[in-house]
Design brief:
0% strand; 309 residues; mainly alpha
């Protein structure tokens, strides 16, 4: 997903309507996000990224205050180890955001959809390689099929689909290391944007000093769009974090395909990005891999339920 933390605590016993609505709202907002990124495409990527950070900070902070969850954050700010972990995840998510913003503006929304389709398969692969988790034959087959799709796209273009792979790798490692941060998803997000806020503010002030800023530059639309970057960044993340706590892992895993599917449809039918027959075959291979992966996941979940009963 353009921004979704894959680390929120998931309700083990069953789904709730509130959880479903929270998660659905988050994925729909992420699915429509390319329209917003197109609207800011004339603004340099780093400037957009800086404002995503700066205006997410007060929103995330207000949520923590309203929910009364500031104690964990204070403990994190006093811990050098947790600050270092937060700095690592903040760096990874900022790179992911930056690539996404640039790619949409550069007419490569299809590549972002591909990256977010591949992401769950890469996360499973990371678990096998780094954590020694055992994968079923179906899961290995899904990973192999996705790798074949990437190879096909590489053959067609003569180069790796680096945008998709960069989004996949940065988000996969972000989710992996985010699990080591022993605070809740809302507190973790605030800590990350707090860490990023210093360089973001320094960059915005430097732009102002150089007379190159778009914020408060006399164009009200640009100022409004940059202010809105905080809303479109923080609100879906908060919705997702609360939804994931009220849904089963299998449910939230299936719902994560909503956003890349919407991005794919927008890229092809609204942005009119080139979509060759080879790309169609490659995406079909990815969709088949996800079908295999999801089927194996559902079968495993049902088997665990039967054994528990």
């Amino acid at each position: 997903m353009p921004d979704s933390p894959a680390t929120a605590t998931v309700a083990p016993s069953g789904d709730t309507l509130a959880g479903f609505l929270y998660a659905l709202s988050a994925y729909l907002l992420w699915g429509f996000l390319p329209f917003y990124m197109k609207a800011v495409a004339h603004i340099p990527t780093v400037e957009v990224l800086a404002h995503r950070v700066l205006w997410s900070l007060p929103i995330a902070g207000a949520v923590l205050v309203v929910l009364g969850r500031t104690a964990d954050l204070r403990a994190a700010l006093r811990s050098p180890r947790m600050l270092a972990q937060g700095a690592l995840t903040a760096a990874l998510v900022s790179v992911n955001w930056g690539i996404y913003v640039w790619a949409i503006g550069a007419g490569r929304a299809l590549d972002t959809a591909l990256g977010y389709y591949i992401n769950p398969l890469f996360s499973v692969f990371l678990g096998a390689v780094l954590l020694g988790e055992r994968l079923s034959r179906a899961q290995w087959a899904a990973i192999a099929l996705a790798a074949s799709a990437v190879a096909l796209l590489t053959w067609e273009t003569g180069s790796l689909p680096w945008v998709a792979l960069a989004l996949t790798v940065t988000w996969g490692f972000y989710a992996f290391f985010r699990k080591t941060l022993p605070i809740g998803p809302n507190q973790g997000f605030f800590l990350e944007v707090l860490i990023l806020s210093a360089p973001a503010l320094a960059y915005v002030l430097w732009l102002a000093a150089e007379g190159e800023r778009h914020f408060l530059s006399g164009v009200p639309a640009d100022t409004a769009l940059l202010l809105g970057c905080g809303v479109v960044t923080a609100v879906p993340l908060m919705l997702y974090a609360n939804g994931a706590k009220l849904l089963r892992l299998s449910t939230i895993a299936m719902m994560q395909y909503i956003a890349p599917t919407m991005i794919f449809l927008i890229a092809v039918f609204v942005f009119r990005e080139p979509f060759s027959a080879t790309k169609l075959v490659a995406f079909a291979m990815i969709w088949a891999a996800l079908a295999i992966f999801s089927g194996a996941m559902w079968a495993g979940a049902r088997a665990r339920v039967r054994s528990a009963g």
